Amino acid sequence: MNNLLHKFTVIPRCDRLIGFKGIGVGFALLHLVLTWRLLHRTDQVVVNALFWIAILGLLFHQRYNQHSSQHSSQHSSFKSDRIPQSMSRFIGRSLLGLLVVGSFAINPLAAWFVRLFPAVTLLSLGLIASGVRLRQYWRSGLLLLPLMLPKGIVEAAAEQTIGKPVQVLTAQVAAFGLHYLGFDAVQKSSVISLNQGAVDVLFRCTGIPLFFLLIQLAALFLIVFSIPRRQQVQIIGIAATIAFLLSTFRVALLAVLVQNRVSFNYWHDGSGAQIFSTGAIVLFGWVCQQFLPRIQID
What is the tally of structural domains in the chain? Predict the structure, then answer.
């Protein structure tokens, strides 16, 4: 009788595993939709998608290992875990239900809800998969931190501390590049003057916001992969270099286009600005990929 009961409970586990993956992917997509509705930034959505791929990959891998171990476990352990597991699954599913209701009931501009969404999702999936044994998901938990970080506060703090020196440095390098290319560029503080007009390099035009975006990807590589300390420093340095050079090139381009308001607005506030940030993500991802043959996943 026990063998028959065990057989009927083990058969649907494969279907439950597939359903578990479907739930994880569905809530990840829901969070990406909420992120887009909140920020309207393609670059941040791409970064968040990469984080969700890593988080769900780790979660599914651990869930599969647990599924295999449960399949080969004794009947006694299966019975003893059944009651607390059912309670944790109920709590996890209830939390997921609250997230779905909140996604439609709460104003999509509620940034706190979007920031807490990944943590509640991972907690819910962990309860469904493993009950209260959540310590095994610590790496996925670390990957949640960049998704939950209040980026506006971080950027505001950076602007107050190092904003002006970085603005001046960006203007100096951009003016030097324009002068080297034959333009009559004059730089004073954070202002670049050309014959056709002048631009003031604001903090959001420097490489700092873009660096914060790339450092999220760097954190992704550093958490998921075992990378020697020397290469960790190289990855962070590459992120800073790409952010600074691309932002400086964009500032120089804006200085040249200052009289053409349509082109200026396109590269300053329109899709052109997203091209630079998305291009930086692709370039940085390709550079980090060069480290992959020399490292191994834990």
Answer: 2
pLDDT, one tens digit per residue, over 134-181 is: 777 787 888 888 888 777 788 888 888 998 999 999 999 999 999 888
Domain containing 74: what range?
Answer: 2-149
Q: What is the pLDDT of residues 248-293, one digit of tens each?
A: 999 999 998 888 888 888 888 877 888 888 899 999 989 988 887 5
Within this chain, do residues 81 and 219 fall inside the same structural domain, yes or no? no
Write down the pTM of the prediction.
0.76
Please give the full DSSP string across the chain, using - where no structure is assigned. -HHHHHHHHHTTHHHHHHHHHHHHHHHHHHHHHHHHHHH--HHHHHHHHHHHHHHHHHHHHHHHHHHHHHHTS-HHHHHHTHHHHHHHHHHHHHHHHHHHHHHHHS-TT-HHHHHHHHHHHHHHHHHHHHTT--GGGHHHHHHHHHHHS-HHHHHHHHHHHHHHHHHHHHHHHHHHHHHHTT---EEETTEEEETTEEEE--GGGSSHHHHHHHHHHHHHHHHHEE--HHHHHHHHHHHHHHHHHHHHHHHHHHHHTTT-HHHHHHHHTSHHHHHHHHHHHHHHHHHHHTTGGG-EE-
- Residues 272 and 206 grouped into a single domain: yes
Considering the domain architecture, whether residues 46 and 122 belong to the same structural domain is answered as yes
